[in-house]
Specification:
Pfam families: Abhydrolase_1 (PF00561). This is AB hydrolase-1 domain-containing protein. The chain has about 375 residues and is an alpha/beta fold. The protein has twelve helices and twelve strands. The radius of gyration is 24 Å and the shape is globular.
Length: about 375
């Protein structure tokens, strides 16, 4: 087959992918609207109130501040939400606009057509007016007790969450931390020479390290180091608070509380993967004298073209709303559709014990680790 034929086939494949994707994601947009109504009704029936979602339109900052005079929104190179109580700044969080600016496929197509017709890239830039989403305002009000403490906290776990002990730890103020320390200390009771913190990535847990890397650490290295592998906030056996916005600040503070402060860590190395690389860099910025080295595995770095809004560009790159390849389709559903993602979580996460049992039966109570060929029983 000649180069021209291959090029023609590739072009036809891309066109078909775009056409099918347009139809599929328009249908998913409609399904998302329907699920929004369904979950509001279900939440109200199960919990007596529905929780605000991010698929509705943003509220103007003036309206948000005027309601109580205690929520102030500013913009300094990005979205900033400042919570105020009695004229005192209590909380400052960076809220990515991708949390609440996820236009539908048809809206994106209309914006692109408008931008190409006008010959400007204005549609790609953030609007001049600052807006804050009502869901964020309500969450922040719940956190800081705005309104005289009359806010009714959301139940945790919710009706749609798993209620097992692993998913709902008793200690909600700290992360789950897997610790491997030298037996008896170095030199008969002396403190370890070094500490190493392992931070996993998205859709993962501390098992990413404890089942692959830590078993292969040499005895000599173990005798001199403490090894920490954390489950990040909302992952694995760590807390999953219903009113958390899971910001960079919250993740870093939980690592500080659960590892640095609790275990008296003064200097440490960091090994991080994917999402964990962002947290590793944040820790290095906050503790420049304490972090001795950074090892970043597959850090999520995306060069952003000039004139593009960085967050929106990365969202479109990671989740391009295409049906092919399958990983792009899965990422698109997870990133663009709040209520579809909740449905997937109910099916998979809420019933994870049933899926785990089915997997064990299907594999005859065995699994094959990808780093070796010898199977071992999961019951060992």
């Amino acid at each position: 087959m000649g180069a021209a034929a291959r090029s023609a086939l590739a072009s036809a494949g891309r066109a078909a992918n775009e056409a099918v994707s347009l139809v599929v994601f328009v249908l998913l947009d409609a399904l998302e609207v329907l699920l929004c109504v369904v979950y509001k009704v279900a939440d109200y029936v199960a919990e007596g109130a529905w929780r605000p979602c991010y698929c509705s339109r943003s509220a103007p900052a003036a309206a948000a501040a005027g309601a109580t005079g205690k929520i102030v929104v500013s913009e300094r190179g990005g979205s900033k939400v400042v919570s105020m109580l009695s004229s005192t700044k209590l909380h400052l969080e960076d809220i990515s606009d991708t949390l609440y600016e996820r236009p539908s496929v048809l809206a994106c197509a209309a914006a692109s057509a408008s931008a190409s017709g006008s010959g400007s890239g204005a549609s790609k830039r953030r609007p001049a007016g600052v807006a804050v989403h009502s869901a964020i305002v309500q969450m922040l009000r719940g956190k800081i007790g705005v309104g005289g403490g009359k806010h009714r906290p959301y139940p945790s776990p919710r009706w749609s969450d798993c209620h097992c002990a692993n998913c709902n730890p008793a200690d909600t103020g700290r992360l789950f931390v897997h610790v491997e320390a030298p037996q008896g200390g170095v030199g008969g009771g002396a403190a370890p020479e070094e500490d190493v913190l392992f931070i996993h990535g998205f859709i993962s847990s501390s098992g990413f390290w404890t089942e692959t890397v830590l078993p292969h650490v040499s005895p000599s290295a173990r005798s001199r180091r403490r090894l920490f592998a954390v489950d990040l906030l909302g992952f694995g056996r760590s807390p999953k608070p219903a009113d958390s916005l899971y910001t960079l600040r919250e993740h870093v503070e939980m690592i500080e509380r659960s590892v640095i402060e609790r275990h008296g860590v003064r200097s440490f190395h960091i090994v991080a993967h994917s999402l964990g690389s962002i947290l590793a860099l944040a820790l290095a910025v906050k503790y420049p004298a304490a972090v001795r080295s950074l090892t970043l595995v597959a850090p999520p770095y995306f060069p952003v073209p000039r004139g593009e809004v960085g967050t929106q560009y990365v969202l479109r790159t990671v989740a391009p709303r295409r049906v092919w390849p399958p990983i792009a389709f899965g990422a698109s559903v997870a990133c663009w559709y709040e209520h579809l993602s909740r449905t997937v979580s109910i099916v998979l996460c809420k019933h994870h014990r049933l899926w785990e049992l089915a997997f064990r039966v299907f594999t005859l109570y065995r699994r094959r680790p990808f780093w070796g060929n010898k199977p071992f029983s999961i019951l060992q």
